[in-house]
Amino acid sequence: MPLNQRPRPQWLTFDCYGTLIQWDEGLHAAVSRILASNPQERALPTPANFLNIYDQHEHRLERTPPHRNFADIAREALRLTMQELGLTYRPEDANMLIDSISAMPPFPEVVDTLSVLKQAGFRLCIISNTDDQIIAGNVAQLGGHIDRVVTAEQAGAYKPSGKIFAHAYNSLGVTADDVVHICASPHLDHAAARDIGFRCVWIDRGTGRQRLPDYLPDATVPTLDRVPDLFRNAGWL
Fold this sequence. Notes:
This is Hydrolase. By secondary structure, the protein is an alpha/beta fold. 46% of the residues lie in helices and 11% in strands. Helix 1 packs across helix 2 (47-62), helix 2 (47-62) packs across helix 3 (70-84) and helix 3 packs across helix 4.
């Protein structure tokens, strides 16, 4: 459904990693450092191959009860990945990975775009599959434009579960109709949009992530700085 066929939202909610923050780039750099420091004589996997296995473990652990914080999931996913690849796991590798997430910077256009959206009267909230302590370092780089941050740690659930979105909407005092969600992750955020029915703008940064076969986002743009023009066309700016 075209965005302008529904009311102007009060809040814009954002996925953080991959949408606002350079997640793929940061993970690749962190894994490259971990592999370079691993005491192995055997041939090492490429960072891309390593991350493919890591992602599978991470997403499985997020869906497996009981709920655990993201730092613990990242440690366990890293340990299982290294075990599967026959690499030596060291606790300092997990610390390096987790510390690197907090330090990941925003994409170049993000801070200025958030400023434009904030000045247009939207309130801005992040909904993210992470812990409060981890995301604090990323939010600190977003120019002070973010009004609220909702994490999996607060909600006790990870996307695509509707529980984290329900927690966010209750915290904001809104319904799904009062929100447009902006994200880069089809398998997490689009799945939730399909099941819950909130409006969704996909930031398709050309990473190769594929649209779900049974869901079409309300709009698709390649970078965040295209969102203000999208909203102007909808009559919201």
